[in-house]
């Protein structure tokens, strides 16, 4: 949860870039963390539930028009994310990774697990993903998302 992440950042005095002491940078992190619940999390989870879990539970194929609508909703928030939060910066707060970037990428991996490569036609988003993965370490990123990457085996 976001509350736990913020608690841990404060309690264990993580490096400042994760949850910056600079008020403007912290405001950017807080802004994203507040928006993401109905933005990326809401739409990314909806695509995952609609495309993967519902057919798995019901045993029924997904109507194509349903998937198109859910995918379009996700595309709208991805555009908002790129324009409002990333802009032309390497990370959400500027030149360093923060909790906002970490939370954003984790949420974006759900649609990827559902077979929707949202990075494929979005070079800005793909470059940002690469930077986030490098900042946390590619091996750690792979380990953390192992279940997501193996979702197709369901």
TrEMBL record:
Keyword annotations from UniProtKB, A to Z: Cytoplasm, Transferase
UniProt-listed PROSITE patterns: GST_CTER
This enzyme's EC code(s): 2.5.1.18
GO molecular function annotations of the record: glutathione transferase activity
Catalytic activities: RX + glutathione = an S-substituted glutathione + a halide anion + H(+)
InterPro entries in the cross-refs: Glutathione-S-Trfase_C-like, Glutathione-S-Trfase_C_sf, GST_C, GST_C_Theta, GST_Theta
Family: Belongs to the GST superfamily. Theta family.
Quaternary structure (record): Homodimer.
Name of the featured protein: glutathione transferase
